[in-house]
Amino acid sequence: MSRRNQFAVDRLSLVVTVLAGFLLVVPVGCDSSGGTKGGGGGASKKAPEANDSDEGGSTEPTGDQPMYGEGKITGRITVKGAKMNPQKLAMTGDQFCTTFDKQFVPPKFQIGEDGGLPHTFVYIKKGIQNKYPVPEEAAVLDQSKCMYDPHILGVQVQQTLKIKNSDNTAHNVHAQPKRNEKFNVAQPGAGVVTEKEFRRPEIMVKFKCDVHGWMSAYVGVVKHPFFTVTDEDGNFSIEKLPPGDYTLATWHELYGEREAKVTIAANGAETVDIEYARGE
User: Fold this and answer.
1) Alpha-carbon radius of gyration of the chain
2) Helix, strand or coil, per DSSP, at residue 227
3) For residues 54 and 49, what is the distance between their CA atoms, to the nearest angstrom?
4) What is the fold, at CATH topology level, of the domain defined by 71-277?
5) pLDDT tens digits for 205-237?
């Protein structure tokens, strides 16, 4: 072999050796968090990042309290000096919707027996000290009989919200948050489903249908699972609370917000009744 050929062989061997060493130190198949791609996951979504300290509770874990407890808050929301009077809801401009045109009390005016106030969002505003996993099960906002159902709904941050059209007519879903990303999507017929999620807590996010001006709904977005909506007579219950000092808050479309301080002992149960007054 000539000296020129021997030099070429030696040079090629050097290149191969360098490349082999490089491949040994480069990580393969890892994501940005350091885990290996394709690895398994848990049964629930990742809890929201602990970088937002707005309403809905702290996401910073303390390590001193159990994630869930046996505490419970029950109560009733009422309004004084107001009565429910049926009104004619004019579902005009859509032949499908006129089928449901009838005497109707819009949700914000509905009042139960003895002043019980339905459609009130109730949640723990302050005092939650742990992070909570995001539910795998989606919350559902339906468009049925040319109305949003339910009128008031709660979701956790990053929980999937399924918005569906059950009507044989076209709707559009126009969300108007102030802290989250706005969206306006068309749902041209029955069976159409849109999935969204909110990345920041917000009390409350308004939904409307631009096609049917009487349709509206509100969604409360919080960081934890301790929220509910009052029933038709104003009753509510929030369970599985760890012991601690809390601020319970209520929100009603017409009557606004109220707050109450509540202390929950281990395995404790407290009753909180809140009364709104007409004209306040």
Assistant:
1) 27
2) strand
3) 13
4) Immunoglobulin-like (2.60.40)
5) 999 999 999 999 999 999 999 999 999 999 999
Domain ranges of the chain: 71-277
Chain-centre distance of CA 29, in angstroms? 33
How many angstroms separate the CA atoms of 177 and 208, rounded?
11
User: 172-201 in b/e burial notation, b at 16+ Cβ within 10 A?
Assistant: bbbbebeebeeeeeebeeeebeeebbbebb
Q: What is the pTM of this model?
A: 0.78
Q: Which helix (H) or strand (E) holds 95?
A: helix 95-98
The one-letter amino acid code at 150 reads P
Say if residues 135 and 113 touch (Cβ distance below 8 Å). no
- Residue 9 parent element (H or E): helix 3-25
Averaged pLDDT for residues 179-204: 96
Q: 177 Cβ partners below 8 Å, 6+ apart?
A: 198, 202, 205, 206
For residue 158, give both structure tokens.
């990053």
Query: What is the distance between the alpha carbons of residues 148 and 85, in angstroms, rounded to a whole number?
Result: 21
Of 58, 67, 51, the C-alpha closest to 199 is 51
Terminal-residue alpha carbon distance, the chain:
102
